[in-house]
Specification:
Blueprint: E1 14-16, E2 21-23, H1 25-42, E3 51-55, H2 60-73, E4 80-87, H3 94-108, E5 111-116, H4 117-121, H5 125-135, H6 142-161, E6 165-167, H7 172-184, H8 188-193, E7 207-209, H9 217-226, H10 243-257, H11 261-279, E8 286-287, E9 294-295, H12 301-311
Parallel strand pairs: 3-4, 3-6, 4-5, 6-7
Antiparallel strand pairs: 1-2, 8-9
Helix pairs in contact: 1-9, 2-3, 2-9, 7-10, 7-11
Bound molecules: iron/sulfur cluster and zinc ion (2 copies).
Residues 288, 290-291, 293, 299-300, 302-303 line the site of one zinc ion.
Length: 312
């Protein structure tokens, strides 16, 4: 029997290859929670009186983040925690995830706000996908629309709720994949911007923070399993086999051979970022002519996308 390297009393159930630790269930959960606490304090993500809104899709990462933050925030009685779910309008997928998100919020006693594409933009994602498909032209994918419209919906919901921070569940895997994608696309500005705590560049933008950006996805999944957290696990019907998936596979293969390489990529980016930030001139934001939201051009991205859809 392999014993836990921390408490030395119980049988180990998880092997952290990058650190050599072998952990029992209890020590694993405690180490995960202290890792998130460490990330929060390292990047100064929260103030003791912050009103924090967690973006909860219903998937394992976001539901787990909500559970961990509820635990951490108990030590800060002046802080307030709430959750938001964006219902994109994906039949058989998001409606199920929404139920799971609701159930978790009820269980934890966290206020839950639901906003939807239909309410905000007049269309569900299913309708948008039908409109794209009718055009029979190669162009933007459902995920491109979904990502842009969801980011806007989250910011609007957080702003309307009057919160100070919007916490998202981007894991170490998400972050390293995004970094490599940005390198492939030569997008220095995005690398400069994709920080664990995003710089607020307009008063209408709520500050976004990523408390699990230093936690591997596999460990989030194991924590959810040990804590018996209920989450939705079926994949989105529009999930595509995009470049991101190939990068995920490549990083997982590398991690198998070179334990800890995801952390290496993450730390390298943290080191390179200040140079990129100095190079990248912050874009001046103005108000969108149509909806009044912050944008670099005259029309914001969501308005541009919706306008193009209606033209066809
Ligand atoms: Fe949206 Fe794409 Fe995610 Fe589905 S897979 S929820 S379409 S971003
Ligand atoms: Zn132990
Ligand atoms: Zn607009």
């Amino acid at each position: 029997m392999v014993m836990c390297t921390l408490c030395k009393r119980k049988e180990a159930v998880f092997m952290r290859r990058y650190s050599g630790e072998k952990l029992c269930g209890r020590c694993f959960c405690k180490s995960m929670e202290s890792k998130v606490r460490g990330t929060i304090s390292k990047y100064e993500m929260f103030e003791p009186k912050d009103r924090i809104m967690v973006a909860v899709s219903g998937g394992k990462d976001s539901v787990t983040l909500l559970h961990i933050l509820t635990k951490i925030e108990k030590a800060f009685p002046d802080a307030a925690l709430s959750a938001v779910t964006v219902d994109e309008g994906i039949k058989g997928y998001r409606d199920e995830a929404l139920k799971v998100a609701k159930k978790n919020c009820q269980k934890l006693g966290v206020e839950h706000v639901v906003t939807s594409f239909k309410e905000m933009y007049g269309y569900e994602l299913d309708e948008i996908v039908n409109m794209i498909r009718q055009r029979k032209k190669k162009g933007l994918t459902p995920c491109s629309y979904c990502g842009v419209l969801r980011r806007r919906a989250l910011n609007t919901a957080a702003r309307e709720a009057g919160v100070d921070k919007l916490a998202t569940a981007h894991s170490l895997d998400d972050e390293t994949q995004t970094m490599l994608l940005n390198i492939i696309h030569g997008d220095a500005l995005r690398i400069a911007r994709a920080k664990p705590v995003l710089t607020v560049i307009h008063p209408k933008l709520v500050q976004r923070v990523k408390p699990v950006c230093e936690v591997p996805e596999k460990e989030i999944a194991f924590y959810a399993y040990l804590r018996r957290i209920e989450f939705q696990s079926i994949p989105c019907p529009y999930a595509q086999t995009a470049l991101r998936n190939d990068i995920r596979t490549m990083l997982n293969r590398l991690e198998e051979k070179h334990a800890g390489i995801k952390f290496t990529v993450f730390r390298s980016m943290e080191r390179i970022r200040p140079a990129l930030e100095a190079m990248a001139e912050e874009a001046k934001l103005q108000n969108c002519r149509k909806c009044g939201e912050p944008t670099v051009g005259k029309l914001c991205k969501p308005c541009q996308m919706l306008q193009e859809l209606r033209v066809f």
